[in-house]
Amino acid sequence: MNDFGVTTDEVDGHSLEDYLQGAERTEDTRFAVVNVTLKNTGDEPFVPSEKMSAQLIGELTYQESWDEIFTERDNELSPGKEITGNLVYISDNLYEDGVVYMSYETGAREEVKFELPVPNE
């Protein structure tokens, strides 16, 4: 994990309205943006989106990343290669949660969690 931020600004050319697709936006609706680098340290190529999922979890938040943004995860990643991009989530509860966790493979034996304190507004 490289960076974490909360914003109402466009992310990689996508607005909150694009994501909400007509649903009501509250004053607390925010993008949560986690910039990550994924590296293939194995001996075989793999497609990251087929091997791992990343959720944003808090007391009031449980979100899957918005797949339309970091589309490089859908391409084969060769051994020794890496990709960097934004995992993007949307929530109305980030400030109430105070702390959220980005979790790879939630509930699995190999689950990995990163604690992400929500920055002040």
UniProtKB/TrEMBL annotation:
It comes from the Bacteria. The lineage of its organism: Bacteria, Bacillati, Bacillota, Bacilli, Bacillales. Residues 4-91 form the DUF4352 domain. InterPro entries: DUF4352 (IPR029051), Immunoprotect_excell_Ig-like (IPR029050). Keywords: Signal. This is DUF4352 domain-containing protein. It comes from Lentibacillus kapialis. Pfam families: DUF4352.
